[in-house]
UniProtKB/TrEMBL annotation:
<keyword id="KW-0597">Phosphoprotein</keyword>
<dbReference type="Pfam" id="PF00072">
    <property type="entry name" value="Response_reg"/>
</dbReference>
<protein>
    <submittedName>
        <fullName>Response regulator transcription factor</fullName>
    </submittedName>
</protein>
<dbReference type="InterPro" id="IPR001789">
    <property type="entry name" value="Sig_transdc_resp-reg_receiver"/>
</dbReference>
<dbReference type="InterPro" id="IPR011006">
    <property type="entry name" value="CheY-like_superfamily"/>
</dbReference>
<dbReference type="GO" id="GO:0000160">
    <property type="term" value="P:phosphorelay signal transduction system"/>
</dbReference>
<feature type="modified residue" description="4-aspartylphosphate">
    <location>
        <position position="54"/>
    </location>
</feature>
<dbReference type="InterPro" id="IPR058245">
    <property type="entry name" value="NreC/VraR/RcsB-like_REC"/>
</dbReference>
<feature type="domain" description="Response regulatory">
    <location>
        <begin position="3"/>
        <end position="119"/>
    </location>
</feature>
<dbReference type="GO" id="GO:0006355">
    <property type="term" value="P:regulation of DNA-templated transcription"/>
</dbReference>
<keyword id="KW-0238">DNA-binding</keyword>
<dbReference type="InterPro" id="IPR039420">
    <property type="entry name" value="WalR-like"/>
</dbReference>
<keyword id="KW-0805">Transcription regulation</keyword>
<dbReference type="Pfam" id="PF00196">
    <property type="entry name" value="GerE"/>
</dbReference>
<keyword id="KW-0804">Transcription</keyword>
<dbReference type="GO" id="GO:0003677">
    <property type="term" value="F:DNA binding"/>
</dbReference>
<dbReference type="InterPro" id="IPR016032">
    <property type="entry name" value="Sig_transdc_resp-reg_C-effctor"/>
</dbReference>
Length: 215
């Protein structure tokens, strides 16, 4: 079972999410938080797999809560579920540690698939969030081999990862094993000083390392 914590200050939103998620045979809603501080505290006590996190909440906002959760419980993934798609919200959320970013107009079936993707270690970004990331590309000041110490094969893996591909799909595209892909991804995280696939994809887009074609 995927253990889900809902964090949103609107009762109607929480009720709607609870009603739908409880119909999923592989998901269990283990708690509801009404603000960011409650989300942090409940994560510590309940240890959810996924936190569905609103951005704008009282006491502590979603970005601050996400940062605290990822610092204290790095194994818990945070999926932002918000109405804001502009870069001023998308980028700080990902940099705080959110592994996914979806908007509240998402179809219910797409939402549960996003939750499952996070559990599989895959990217899950709303198309409008992806569009915002495409606008933040910065020109390279130094040659790639100086600024970004990735091997050619690691750059290939990063390029495929930024397209939102799973490890299996990357392995198939590059004609290597999934174990090899996992090793390359681990090296990429270490060299770029990022925590997950979404942050690696954001880093690549921001610095012009690869084309952001379908995060």
């Amino acid at each position: 079972m995927i253990r889900v914590l809902i964090a949103d200050d609107h009762h109607v939103v929480r009720r709607g999410l609870l009603f739908f998620l409880k119909t999923q045979k592989d998901m269990d809603v283990i708690g509801e938080a009404t603000n960011g501080q409650e989300a942090v505290d409940m994560t510590a006590s309940l240890r959810p797999d996924i936190v569905l996190m609103d951005l704008v909440m009282p006491i502590m906002d979603g970005i601050q809560a996400t940062k605290k959760i990822k610092e204290q419980h790095p194994q818990t993934e945070v999926l932002m579920l918000t109405s804001f798609s502009d870069r001023d919200h998308v980028i700080p959320a990902i940099e705080a540690g959110a592994a996914g970013y979806q908007l509240k107009d998402i179809e219910p079936d797409d939402l549960v698939e996003s939750i499952r993707k996070l559990m599989r270690g895959e990217n899950t970004l709303h198309p409008r969030a992806t569009s915002e990331l495409m606008k933040v590309r910065e020109p390279q000041i130094e040659p790639p081999h100086k600024l970004y110490p990735l091997t050619p094969r690691e750059q290939d893996v990063l390029s495929e990862l930024t397209k939102g591909k799973s490890n299996r799909e990357i392995a198939s595209s590059l004609f290597v094993t999934e174990k090899t892909v996992k090793t390359h991804i681990s090296n990429i995280f270490s060299k770029l000083h990022v925590q997950d696939r979404t942050q690696a994809a954001l880093y690549a887009v921001k610095h012009g390392l690869t084309e952001p074609s379908g995060l």
